[in-house]
Design brief:
It is a single chain. The protein has 157 residues and is an alpha+beta fold. It has helices at residues 23-30, 75-78, 82-93, 103-116, 122-128, 139-152, and strands spanning 4-8, 11-15, 49-52, 55-58, 71-73. The protein folds into two domains: 4-74, Beta-grasp domain (Ubiquitin-like (UB roll)); 81-152, [2Fe-2S]-binding domain (DNA polymerase, domain 1, Orthogonal Bundle), CATH 1.10.150. It is built from six helices and five strands. Strands 2-1-5-3-4 form a five-stranded mixed sheet, sandwiched between helices. The radius of gyration is 15 Å and the shape is globular.
Length: 157
């Protein structure tokens, strides 16, 4: 077997482990993508959220074999973009970060939302972030950060 070939943060990689391995573990342990957190292991918390071919997924629910030929973006790759800078500044500027555990997943969810809908309402933002749990900050600051990023990043999404 040649391995599972995919693009990770714009770089072609080949995973030679089991196709049944969780993408979460592959990203963290093999490729050192520490922004991808292990929270619930059931797809309920969003801490392991990544973009798979531009679609938000919980990597704990994806088998490595399912990503053959796909493109995966984690915060490590996303942070090189202008969109990330806008989101990061909005989260920091509106105190939407406390412990930081949920923030990589929240940022990836915000990116997916804003890519699909660059002018979301508060309700649409809450719906877009609904698969991500935050135990520290609360959701109002995060919703406000996404709303601010949408405004500040006009034309980026």
């Amino acid at each position: 077997m040649d391995g599972i070939k995919f693009v990770l943060n714009s770089k072609e990689v080949c995973y030679t482990g089991s196709a049944a391995d969780r993408l979460l573990d592959v990203l963290r342990d093999t490729y050192d993508m520490k922004s991808v957190k292990c929270g619930c292991k059931e797809g309920e918390c969003g801490a392991c959220a990544v973009l798979l071919d531009g679609v938000l997924v919980n990597s704990c629910c994806v088998a490595a074999g399912a990503v053959e030929g796909s493109e995966i973006t984690t915060v490590e790759g996303f942070r090189e973009t202008e969109q990330f800078k806008v989101l990061s500044n909005a989260f920091a500027g509106l105190s939407a970060v406390q412990c930081g555990f949920c923030i990589p997943g929240m940022v990836m969810a915000a990116q997916a939302l804003l890519s699909a809908n660059p002018h979301p309402t508060d309700d649409e933002i809450r719906e877009g972030l609904s698969g991500n749990l935050c135990r520290c900050t609360g959701y109002n600051a995060i919703v406000n950060a996404v709303k601010n990023a949408a405004k500040e990043g006009e034309g980026l999404w």
